[in-house]
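Lab channel / #folding
Pinned by the channel admin:
"Please post every new chain as: sequence first, then the structure tokens as a reply. Keep commentary short and put observations after the output so the thread stays searchable."

First post following the new format, from NK:
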Amino acid sequence: MDNCCLNRPFDDQTDIRIHLEAESIKAIISLFDQQKWILISSQVLEFEISNTYDILRRNNLLAIIQLASETVEVINKLRLLT
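Reply from TO:
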């Protein structure tokens, strides 16, 4: 799940499409919480969340990614063209 997905439950719920998407995301998050599904995070996701301006939203997102069983690291490889 990317940052946009994880943010959906905290978006304005007055639009029916946003509300339905948020409910879907919340259902998926509950499956992670129940350990029925596995959440995999990434350093990129953590970076995006750390740049969230709204402190309450950021804290909620950080709590969600604490459910992750694994974090994918960014590997920086410089390839020189010869």
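NK: The beta strands are 40-42, 70-72.
TO: also worth noting, The chain has one domain: 3-72.
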